[in-house]
Structures are given as C-alpha cells and as structure tokens.
C-alpha cells in the first residue's frame, strides 16, 4: 500500500490536527517521487541531491516557519508526522535534513527579533542548513577545538574540522558548534559555498549511506558577526528534538519495511514442503511475521507523535514568561523522548530483522535492498547510545532526578 492512499485507510492512523491532510497533500506527491527512486539510489550509491532539491522547491524546510512569516505554520506533532511520511519514502533524505529542522526550530524559538528577521525569510524561501558540531580524534567534551575569531565586531572567521556533518553537502548554510577565542561556547552559521569551506563525502558507515555525513573543514571561513550566537541562547529542548527526528525516521523505516515485506510475500510463489500452506500469502506463520512488522511500525509512529506533543508543550512555554514552567516542560520533553527512544529503536530493529523470516534466502539478494532497513535502523539507533536512557529514566522514576538536556562526546 503506497503513500498515495490516505494514511487512515492505509492503517497508519490519522495525522495530528484538523488541517494535517491538507498540509500533507502539498508534499505527498514529492514523497512518492522520492520513494520511486529510493532503491535505485541505494544500489548505485547516488546521493539524494535531486530529492532534496524537490523538497526545497516545495519549501518543505519552511514547515515550522509561522504563516505570517511566509511558512506553513506546522505544529511540532505535524512536523514529526510529515518526517515519518518522508522516512517511509527514503530515510536517508530525512536524516540529511535533520540538522536543518533543528536549526529552523532554533530560529522559531529565537527571542532576538533581529535574528528572526534575518533568518525567517531565508527559511521561508526554502533555503536549508546543514550541521557541523561533532569533532573526533583528540576532541574534548567540554570545549570545541573549532575557533571563531571576531575582528573588532566587524567581521568574523571560523577555523576547524568537523565530522558527522550530516546534510551539509546539500545545504545552503552550515550551523557550526565552536569556541570563541576566550573559550566561550558559541554557534556560528557559514555559507556552504563560502571560501574556506570544504565538505567531503567520506562517510563510511554501513547504514544511512546517502546522507553525506562526512568531514567538513573550515579554513578562515567568513562569518557574519550577526550569525555568531552564544550556545546558551539556543532552544532548550534541542536534544529531545534532534533525538525525536531519529525516532520519526525509525518509524518511517518500519513502514517501508512493512510495505516491502508485504509486497514480497504477496508476489512469492515458492514455498517449503514443511510450510502449512502451498502459497506464502496464505501461510499463517508468514502472515504472523508480516503482522508483527506492521504492528511495530504502527506503534513506533504512535509513540513518536505522543512524544512530539511533549515538545509542543515545551515550545508553548518559550514565550510565556514563566521560567519555572518552561524548565519543567523542557525536562518532561526530554524524559518522554528518552522513554520513547529505547522502545522505538527496539521495535524497528526487531522488525527489520524478522523481515527475512517471512521470506526465503532470495530476499537477501542485493538487488532487493531489504537489508537497508536494518542497516539504517541500526545506524540511527547508535547515534545517541540507548544504553544510558533506561538508567536516566529509572533515576527520574526513583529519585526524581531530571534528565540532562545536552550531551557531548569526546575525551574528559
């Protein structure tokens, strides 16, 4: 069953908000076009420049920009519902846009009117941002080795090397985590094609192979001082937001795996002599496996949308002027996403594994590309180690300890 069908009649449940189907109708033809070439791109390792270009033309990146600012004014649950649908088509594309939606969320949350006036028009036109935050090698947890230099407040430059710069190869702008010359934690935005910016597709992971999550180096790359922001000013539920994008992507992978296994079982004519039915499409045990996969995908999507509502509540407190309420809403959002993380990742990792229990050995042929679902799910589930989440949740349940908002990787 393809995305041309209503998500309700397809059995995935209704979207959030009365206007969701109207909003989604704008993008579903693009999703379908993306889905049509997903397997071929995977097999040929063709980076999704075209699909991302189609989404830019549709101004998909302006989903969270308020309507009065030229965007679509989507709620957070609506954004995540659409990311599930996009991931159903091709999870590589969602992962490549993850940094953009995090950057856009930061702008929508910005209290600085100058910053909003600077960036909302760009976002509403469909311009997209990549990310350059992670450092490897001898990188420290407490500070970035990438440095922003300010010159009398009139000009700035950034120098350093980043890895896992997902989406930057496709972007118009790159959002960078850096240190000031005095050691202060900052973020800066650099034009993707500015002098001194070099983006390399050297990602060699076995999953999400089309996201260009490789290395970006900055050599005295020019930065407008207006685009240098103190890190503490960024939106407070950012860790939960970025993680929930992963979970939405996993939910979409589950839907794609469900579709693929159902189509393969329906088309299959060969069966085993010890099977309970001569045709796989009538085999009760095979149908049970297909049903488990679909149920896992459905449950993952429902969990994502429930957690997205917690992010919506956190966003709603941003400008309410009640610091205590904002603090609590952000803590609960982080908690709910942490609770979702281990469950959703387990559901989809298991579902993408048992796909092969419903089919014969021919399903492992490279041309079928069914392995991409597990590889992609396994890679996404490794970004923010889930082994720590159950402990954090348990500490909250037993001791009332709030979950940490941010985390970094590196040497202590």
UniProtKB/TrEMBL annotation:
<protein>
    <submittedName>
        <fullName>Monooxygenase</fullName>
    </submittedName>
</protein>
<dbReference type="InterPro" id="IPR037069">
    <property type="entry name" value="AcylCoA_DH/ox_N_sf"/>
</dbReference>
<dbReference type="GO" id="GO:0003995">
    <property type="term" value="F:acyl-CoA dehydrogenase activity"/>
</dbReference>
<dbReference type="InterPro" id="IPR046373">
    <property type="entry name" value="Acyl-CoA_Oxase/DH_mid-dom_sf"/>
</dbReference>
<dbReference type="InterPro" id="IPR013107">
    <property type="entry name" value="Acyl-CoA_DH_C"/>
</dbReference>
<dbReference type="GO" id="GO:0016712">
    <property type="term" value="F:oxidoreductase activity, acting on paired donors, with incorporation or reduction of molecular oxygen, reduced flavin or flavoprotein as one donor, and incorporation of one atom of oxygen"/>
</dbReference>
<dbReference type="GO" id="GO:0033539">
    <property type="term" value="P:fatty acid beta-oxidation using acyl-CoA dehydrogenase"/>
</dbReference>
<dbReference type="Pfam" id="PF08028">
    <property type="entry name" value="Acyl-CoA_dh_2"/>
</dbReference>
<comment type="similarity">
    <text>Belongs to the HpaH/HsaA monooxygenase family.</text>
</comment>
<dbReference type="GO" id="GO:0005737">
    <property type="term" value="C:cytoplasm"/>
</dbReference>
<keyword id="KW-0560">Oxidoreductase</keyword>
<dbReference type="Pfam" id="PF02771">
    <property type="entry name" value="Acyl-CoA_dh_N"/>
</dbReference>
<feature type="domain" description="Acyl-CoA dehydrogenase C-terminal">
    <location>
        <begin position="246"/>
        <end position="383"/>
    </location>
</feature>
<feature type="domain" description="Acyl-CoA dehydrogenase/oxidase N-terminal">
    <location>
        <begin position="32"/>
        <end position="127"/>
    </location>
</feature>
<dbReference type="GO" id="GO:0050660">
    <property type="term" value="F:flavin adenine dinucleotide binding"/>
</dbReference>
<dbReference type="InterPro" id="IPR036250">
    <property type="entry name" value="AcylCo_DH-like_C"/>
</dbReference>
<dbReference type="InterPro" id="IPR009100">
    <property type="entry name" value="AcylCoA_DH/oxidase_NM_dom_sf"/>
</dbReference>
<dbReference type="InterPro" id="IPR013786">
    <property type="entry name" value="AcylCoA_DH/ox_N"/>
</dbReference>
<dbReference type="InterPro" id="IPR050741">
    <property type="entry name" value="Acyl-CoA_dehydrogenase"/>
</dbReference>
<keyword id="KW-0503">Monooxygenase</keyword>
